Amino acid sequence: MSKRIVLGIFFSLIAVSFNKTVPRSNAQEPVSFTKDILPVLEQNCWKCHGQAMQSSRLNLTTREGALQGGARGSAIVPGRAEDSRLYRMIGGLDKPAMPMGGKLAPEQILKIKNWIDQGAHWDATDVASKAAPADVSQWAELENKQLPPGARNYWAFKLPVQAPVPVVSRQFQNPIDRFLEKTRQDKGLKAAPKADRLTLLRRAYMDLIGLPPSPADTDAFMNDTAPGAWERVIDKLLASPHYGERWGRHWLDVARYGDSGGYQNDVDRPNFWRYRDYVIKSFNDDKPYNTFIKEQIAGDEIPNRTDDSLIATGFMRAGPRVQNRERDNPERRFDYLDDVLGAIGKGMLGLTVQCARCHDHKFDPILQKDYYAMEASIYGYVELDYPLGPREQADAYMRTITEIGEKVSALRDKIEDIEKPYHDKLALEEIRKKYPPEMVRAVEKPESERTPGEKLLATQLLESAVSIRSAAVDKVIPPEDAAKKKELNDQIAALNKARPKAGAMAHIVTDGDWRAAAPGGGDFTKGACPKCELEYVGAGKFIELGPGPGNYKVPSSHFLVRGDPDSKAYPTKPGFLSVITYGNPPTELPPADRRTSGRRLAFAEWLTSRDNPLPARVIVNRIWHHHFGRGIVSTLDNFGKMGEQPTHPELLDWLAVEFVDRGWSIKQMHRLIMTSEAYQMASDYMDASSTAKDPDNKYLWRHNIQRLEGEIIRDSIMAVAGTLDLTMGGPPIFPHVDEVLLKSLDRGIWRNQEDGPKVWRRSVYIYAKRTLPFPLVHVFDLADQSVSFGARNVSTIPTQALTLMNNEFVLRQAQLFADRIKKEAGDDVAKQIDLGYRLALTRVPTEKELSLASDLIGSGSLLDFTDVLLNLSEFVYVR
After folding, report:
1. d(CA 689, CA 258)
2. Of residues 419 and 19, which shows the higher confidence score?
């Protein structure tokens, strides 16, 4: 049962079963509507329930509107105040208490109660004409609201400027070091010396490709004594195809990537791995970051679009989805839009724009109207599976399956009409067993006699009879109707057989009309959403597929009062965040074929403009964080006033401008950072004075030790054991999960594979199931796969150590590690220990370590030695 149904029944139960007695006043004294009631409605109710704005679809300017009610049924039951939602909410008997923002005086509440008890008579007053001005005024206040004075004075909202590189007492080749040294000198901190070459080599490998260097890699670097050896290692790693796997994984956290839909259904998304491969390839190709962003927001709208740019739009739908048709669940449409804006806000702008969905942002100058302007910029998008390949062939395929789908949908409607009387009869029997008589009566009434509230309740109860399926109906349906149903099902089978076979498909977005979506599996159709059938009559095509120029028109979007989809204020136009918008950028860049609006393309251009102060800052800060373990702004997703202040604001701005000037190249930013002396500092350096002044190392007087992510720990285990399959891309793998965990799954998939070479691939290719994160990775603080996640948590908990000690996969790899050492080093214990240390830790053992390891192997086994190596802190941390 959906959350919407459960909540609806819950509120309906409250409404019909509440029997609390309220003391009655002298109801014989007549109440004047014009004198006593109209002023109260005008001053307290019409702003949200007037002619122009009807929050929750409730209009209180006419008696008919009050009797008809809104999303939750009638507001007034004449003669019965205690059963009237208007009285119950202003009296605080039901929640939320009304009016919003204050209470009525007790005498006002009493008069409204008496007025309803007396029949709720409405004087012949031209209420509508009086209501309109207040509503229009309220609209104008919302629509024309301006930023507060000085809003752009905050550092993050100013355009970055490259300040002159500081002059410091020491000579540095890299500008980064001069900025850092200036701050260290100001704060009396002493920089650590340079780390040894082996430490730097392991650091670079783990940072850039997430795999330890092999002994051959180590020997090559140590034997390269010519100038530029360090730079050559960096270039080699940046050219490795495994760079994209490492850094693509960071972006997948930001993109809230998942191979399953999440929520209660958690259904499989069989082609979403193509987006994962697109991200990896983009990093390997050093695709300019501004192009990378544009493709993910508007890859279907950019000139000369490609299969890759279409696949890139998977970012827009990467978040969790229920996977049922939005037109039957319109509130989900706005949740999905909020998910997209949240990911763009945190991931690309470093702002919590979602906080402005229901009201102006409490801390940052982000207006609610700006939120809905951004929502209008993406409002037209729809999610669909689209064939890759030539556009003409893809469109022809989509037209064919759309036509077949429409025919199948019409036949299913006919089947539903045949089944409905028998379904409802069986459902009524079930409802009578489960619910009180007051609720059953709403279902028993003829549909034409039900009040709006009873109609809603009846629909919800009939939907909730989940045990009534076609199989149950088939047992009671008479032969003549069974024959009609069979004939229709035969026609559906024939149509489905005629469906063309799909080639390579991608989960993409493009512009369309979400209200025209065909039903999906598990969708309720007729009667499931009565308001949809009224509101969405005449909705356009789901997507434009015509051979010539289209005539696409974006469905209208509205400012939603308090974020309520049923409380529409005024129609919104596309736009951006006022506080970071400089100049007058276009809000639409329609393509020549007019099959999309061009709003998302204009939005993407604004996002990546030099005149947008945040995206370049945000991405260079992310790169910095992954190299140093802490961002210049430590709150990677929040550059607003509730985030942390930058430790080196001038350096951040210098890097942001440099990044754009260098063509938005992430690889060039790696080279710039990694060739700095700051990156090459030792981490095991201790200075009492610096420790006392800066215990958290915010100002980088030494390098931070960093714990590896769960994926990299698993990959490294296989790398040192010699079992890692470096095959790239393609459908995900399903490493073995305990069957006890799988028994709890009743939706979606997990195709458990036996532990072995077929699943010994890099962890970025593990199926990302939202309701079942892979345990070995999850225990090491895997990011929440349902939200944009910039910086992972780093915990130290017993289950991590216990996992490395007892996990069957780790134990098997430890044995294979021992087998590798035995094969390559022979029976010489000293050589075995030397090779084990060089493989696992990129160094040779100390004399003490050699002695301890010899004793361990002598009294135990080579397996004991390799098991210990995989459990060392040094193996899961980078110095």
Report:
1. 46
2. 419
SS3 515: helix
Q: What is the pLDDT of residue 371?
A: 98
Q: H or E segment at 510? A: strand 505-511
- Please state, as a whole number, how many other Cβ atoms lie within 10 Å of the Cβ of residue 812: 15
- Select from 23, 203, 17 the least CA-distant residue to 106: 23
The tokens of 578 are what? 């006022």
**pLDDT band at residue 533 under the 50/70/90 scheme:** low
Mean pLDDT, to the nearest integer, of 484-491? 92
Q: In this predicted structure, what is the pLDDT of residue 124?
A: 58
Whether residue 115 contacts residue 32, with contact meaning beta carbons closer than 8 Å, is answered with no
Tokens of 278: 């697109």
Residue 706, helix vs strand vs coil:
strand
| Residue 177, pLDDT above cutoff 80 | yes
Distances (CA, A) of 1 to 265, 525, 586, 741, 839: 11, 15, 44, 23, 53
Q: In this model, does residue 466 exceed pLDDT 60? A: no
CA atoms of 101 and 202, how far apart (whole Å): 60
Average pLDDT in the 98-108 region?
A: 77
Q: Where are the beta strands (DSSP E) in 312-443?
A: 381-387
What pLDDT, on a 0 to 100 scale, did the predictor assign at position 85? Answer: 83
Q: Is residue 788's pLDDT more than 60?
A: yes
From the centroid of its chain, how far is CA 651?
31
Structural domain boundaries of the chain?
A: 13-134, 175-247+611-693, 288-389+505-607, 410-498, 808-878
C-beta separation of 565 from 334 below 8 A: yes
Residue 718's nearest CA partner among 730, 737, 735 is 735
Q: Which residues pair with 49 in a beta bridge?
A: 54
Query: What does DSSP assign to residue 96?
Result: S
The helix/strand/coil state of 570 is strand
User: Measured between alpha carbons, how far is 604 from 369 in angstroms, rounded to an integer?
Assistant: 19
For residue 544, what are its two tokens? 């434009």
* Distance in angstroms (rounded) separating the CA atoms of residues 4 and 464: 11
Average predicted confidence (pLDDT) for the chain: 89
What tokens does 251 get? 């972006």
> Which has the minimum average pLDDT: 536-540, 677-681, 863-867?
536-540
8-state DSSP, 136: H
d(C-alpha 322, C-alpha 521), whole Å: 11
Consecutive H or E run containing 418: helix 391-434
Helix 666-674 with 229-239: angle, nearest 10 deg: 150
Position 18 scores a pLDDT of 37
Write out 169-236 in H/E/C secondary structure.
Answer: CCCCCCHHHHHHHHHHHHHCCCCCCECCHHHHHHHHHHHHCCCCCCHHHHHHHHHCCCCCHHHHHHHH
Give the separation between CA 245 and CA 282, rounded to whole angstroms: 10
Is the Cβ–Cβ distance between 620 and 656 less than 8 Å? Answer: yes
Distance CA 318, CA 509 (A): 10
Q: How far is 219 from 689, CA to CA, in rounded Å?
A: 38
* Residue 154 neighbours by CB distance under 10 Å: 14
pLDDT exceeds 80 at position 522: no
Distance CA 566, CA 562 (A): 10
